[in-house]
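Q: How would the structure tokens look for this protein?
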Amino acid sequence: KVDKPKTKETPSSKNETSLVQTISGVATKAEKLLLTTKSVVSSAMSDAMESTALLYESILPALRVLRALLLRAALFLARALATVASLMHQTCGYALAEFSVNSTGFVYTFFFTS
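A: Here is the predicted structure in token form.
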């Protein structure tokens, strides 16, 4: 019978083993935290995109109505300015050389000549 030499565990080897176990535990918890964070962020992004799409769909009709109202107001303003230009020509002698309304609206050009 041959006796194997006993390896005596020193306090420093116990500390090293404990440190390795602690680091391993921390790494495992950090990995779980990262996976949870990724899941939460992914879910939040999905919810945000869905709510943005719903918001856009809900305000789109209102934006179309607003655009139509603004175009009507712009055409009304253009007619009023044309009337003012005509009155200026009749009363002050100014001639309206050009008056244009862009088809997209909101672009008005006046050139007055005396």
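Strands lie at 95-101, 108-113.

The chain has one helix and two strands.

Upvote if useful.
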